[in-house]
Design brief:
mainly alpha, globular, single chain, 2 strands
């Protein structure tokens, strides 16, 4: 929330006081994408609202209406933040001569590959650190618990798109552009934006926490390099695929285990 508020203020100042021009199309697409993703899980959000308000003195219909309004308002506010920040970021990248949205299909290809590579490297590194007892990771909810809690693939898709789009717009598209415009140094831009992006995460469940923060900082620098070299769509794809796999993996694993269990030949005991 604090990062979004600061980013909004910076973006508005840039748009008001700087003589910059930019296309509004890309920003509209990003803002509408956030709103559409929020509506994907409207049913689940209403059900969650009903569960959380089970002891309230309101009818189910009233709670449902409040859930719809809350979901729509959240989508509009988040979409507006992404729209304004991306508009300012696009304006600055245009001033700096960057082509952040060119060759989108190539950017998507490189981004998906980069996201999968980072997942593999992170998994190997964290497994090694755990085996050497340098790192302790608290167990997450079991695959079965996640499934029975009602968490769905649509919710995972929604979370992955919103987190990747929102964070990349603020910390890469806007922040790197602003810091580079102020400092003229690309390394400082990537390092500062990556540091702020890393400390923004709570990293609960990791002991010691600094290892997780260090990993996020390195990953942020990696995304920053991708942004400079290939463009915004590349880092959006890399961040999205990274989050999607992590969020939806428990569901995939549980469904696979249940499918394998159902396929086992049944024996009759006498």
């Amino acid at each position: 929330m604090l990062g979004s508020a600061v980013a909004m203020i910076v973006a508005i100042l840039i748009l008001v006081f700087m003589d910059v021009q930019t296309s509004i199309i890309a920003s509209l697409v990003l803002g509408l994408l956030i709103i559409m993703c929020q509506s994907l899980t409207l049913k689940e959000d209403i059900q969650l609202t009903i569960v959380n308000a089970y002891d309230a003195r309101m009818s189910v219909k009233t709670v449902s209406i409040l859930g719809v309004l809350s979901t729509l308002l959240t989508g509009l506010l988040t979409g507006f933040v992404v729209f304004i920040c991306s508009l300012a970021g696009n304006a600055l990248t245009g001033e700096l001569g960057w082509k952040t949205f060119e060759q989108p299909m190539i950017q998507v290809f490189y981004g998906i590959g980069a996201g999968l590579i980072s997942l593999g490297v992170t998994s190997l590194l964290f497994n090694l650190l755990e085996k050497k007892h340098y790192l302790s990771i608290s167990p997450e909810l079991s695959n079965r618990t996640v499934f029975l809690s009602g968490f769905t693939f649509r919710q995972g898709l929604n979370m992955s798109i919103q987190s990747s789009a929102g964070e990349e717009v603020i910390y890469r598209l806007l922040m790197i552009s602003v810091i580079w415009w102020l400092s003229g140094n690309i390394i400082i831009s990537i390092v500062i934006s990556s540091f702020l992006w890393a400390v923004m995460h709570q990293v609960t469940g990791y002991d010691p926490r600094w290892i997780r923060w260090l990993h996020l900082f390195i990953f942020g620098c990696f995304l920053g390099v991708l942004f400079i070299k290939f463009g915004f769509i590349c880092v959006l794809a890399a961040h999205f695929i990274h989050n999607l796999v992590l969020v939806c993996m428990p569901l995939w694993q549980f469904k696979l285990q249940r499918h394998m269990h159902n396929d086992k030949p049944k024996t009759t005991s006498f």
